[in-house]
Write a structure and sequence with these properties.
single chain, about 180 residues, mainly alpha, about 75% helix
């Protein structure tokens, strides 16, 4: 089974080296704070309060849809235990609830889509760092690879939907006459 094999290939490096564990914990637990901080910086770097407000609202709506609505509906309909519960080992970080889809991946990939539509370079960084966070959460023993893949799909779809629904407003604000 792909999910189990991929999990074991990543998790086998956990609990082997203090520095590697520390890096994994940092990327799994604290990188998200840096991504949120980065989003706030990107918001405040926008010109004009309308653009700032729209970007902030667009990001919040993508997060709410991805993490607060879709992820929770899926978890309610399809409860799936976390790896440390299945195998009875100690994960590198504490985590509760069901594992599929990853709420972190849904949250940060939804946000990454919004950042991508604002600034491609920063959007690419958000996508890469969100993926690193997902892999680190597998390494930490709190997610299966398919949890991360599911979260990525939920996040991307949610971000694209929110952006599409707000596209006319965004376009109007980017037009020269709106400045």
């Amino acid at each position: 089974q792909f999910n189990l094999s991929a999990f074991q290939a990543i998790f086998e490096f956990a609990h082997q080296n203090f520095l590697l564990d520390y890096a994994g914990v940092f990327l799994a637990r604290f990188l998200p704070y840096l991504l949120v901080l980065g989003f706030i910086v990107i918001v405040f770097r926008q010109t004009g309060w309308r653009r700032r407000t729209l970007l902030f609202v667009e990001g919040i709506l993508a997060i709410i849809l991805a993490r607060g609505v879709v992820t929770e509906i899926i978890r309610f309909a399809y409860p799936y235990p976390r790896p440390f519960l299945v195998f009875g080992f100690e994960a590198l970080i504490k985590e509760g609830g069901w594992s599929f889809p990853s709420g972190h991946a849904a949250f940060f990939f939804g946000l990454a889509v919004i950042v991508w539509h604002t600034n491609r370079r920063w959007g690419m960084w958000f996508l890469v760092l969100s993926l690193i966070n997902g892999i680190a959460r597998i390494f930490a023993g709190v997610h299966w690879p398919l949890d991360i893949a599911g979260g990525i799909l939920v996040g991307l779809a949610s971000g694209l939907l929110v952006h599409h629904l707000l596209a006319r407003t965004i376009q109007a604000l980017r037009a020269p006459s709106a400045q």
